[in-house]
Design brief:
Radius of gyration: 19 Å
CATH topology: Na+/H+ antiporter like fold
Shape: globular
Number of helices: 15
Helix content: over 70%
Mean pLDDT: 83
CATH architecture: Up-down Bundle
Structural class: mainly alpha
């Protein structure tokens, strides 16, 4: 019950910040000014958040000690789950949602397509900075910063996340297409987390065929959808090994997502970027998705993250209860 209430509370805060930012950004007094500092501040805040995430992981003895023991299993599950979720969402985008690679309806006007293309900010420079930030953060957390400093990572991450979500909302409001983006997405946006979930579990099951874990445990390990703080807790009473693999796999999913999103946006499609982080698409990785694509993709990413976050506490126990 406590976990559920905490999840709902966080969701309420995230939604409120995005909506507040969008409202302020949509005001004429704000839109009349270029406000170039918004994008710069968003980038700086994003780097601080990613560095802090790296510090938090580097200082975590459980993550470091697990790398050699269960790393291969976690790696295989993560890679196949990421591939499956992106594949499922690509099929959904092309054949059901009928959107082009920029997340626009196929019948969009040429000007809209040009705007969609120009709106994307995916480039190799972003990937480079993300890799540098993650590596430096993990090294600092492991070898430089004392526990008295790393103990405050959670607070820094929370406040950095709040600022980023507000800035993302403000950026959406300045674009002036917030309501039209919601209308364009429609109720079909709820199919996005379904596709992500199906793709993740199906390909995690495929990984289980090649691992001693088996299909059921591989699916259970991937069912955290990137929520590495909850899934291992739910799995601990069932199996310490599966719990450890789930922890490392879901940590890997968040890190790999941050690194891969700019590349997926550039070479595959904008909507597919929402598939990579799973549950984290609504919070820590949302600014990366928006920064690599376009503000309108916020609708797909945020909705997918919310639904998947609410599904994890149900999905993990349900898989564990399967009679095989």
């Amino acid at each position: 019950m406590g976990t559920t209430l905490s999840t709902l509370s966080n969701l309420a805060i995230y939604i409120a910040l995005v909506v507040l930012g969008a409202f302020i950004g949509s005001r004429n007094a704000v839109r009349r000014h270029p406000l170039v500092w918004v994008g710069k501040l968003q980038f700086v805040a994003l780097m601080i958040l990613i560095v802090t995430l790296g510090v938090n992981l580097g200082a975590n003895d459980e993550v470091i000690s697990s790398l050699g023991q269960i790393g291969l299993a976690a790696f295989l599950i993560t890679v196949l789950a990421l591939f499956g979720s992106v594949l499922a969402l690509t099929l959904l985008r092309r054949f059901v949602l009928k959107l082009d690679r920029f997340g626009l309806p196929r019948g969009a006007t040429e000007s809209a397509r040009q705007g969609g293309s120009a709106g994307g900010k995916a480039d190799n420079a972003l990937t480079k900075w993300i890799i540098i930030a993650v590596v430096l953060g993990m090294l600092a957390g492991r070898f430089l910063l004392p526990p008295s400093v790393t103990a405050h990572c959670g607070t820094v991450i929370n406040f950095g996340l709040y600022l980023l979500l507000f800035m993302v909302g403000m950026d959406m409001g300045k674009q002036g297409t917030f309501l039209s983006d919601i209308k364009t997405a429609g109720f079909q946006v709820l199919l996005v987390p379904v596709a992500v979930c199906v793709g993740t579990l199906a390909f995690a099951a495929l990984a289980g065929l090649f691992l001693p874990l088996g299909v059921k445990d591989a699916m259970a390990a991937s069912a955290g959808m990137g929520w590495y703080s909850l899934a291992p807790t739910l799995l601990a009473p069932y199996s310490a090994l599966v719990s450890a693999i789930a922890f490392l796999s879901n940590v890997m999913r968040e890190i790999f997502s941050i690194l891969l999103i700019p590349l997926v946006a550039k070479h595959l499609g904008y909507v597919e970027c929402a598939a990579l982080p799973g549950a984290a698409a609504m919070d820590t990785v949302l600014p990366v998705v928006v920064g690599a694509t376009h503000e309108r993709i916020t609708i797909y990413s945020f909705t997918s993250g919310v639904v998947l976050s609410l599904a994890v506490p149900i999905l993990v126990p349900a898989l564990v209860a399967l009679p095989f």
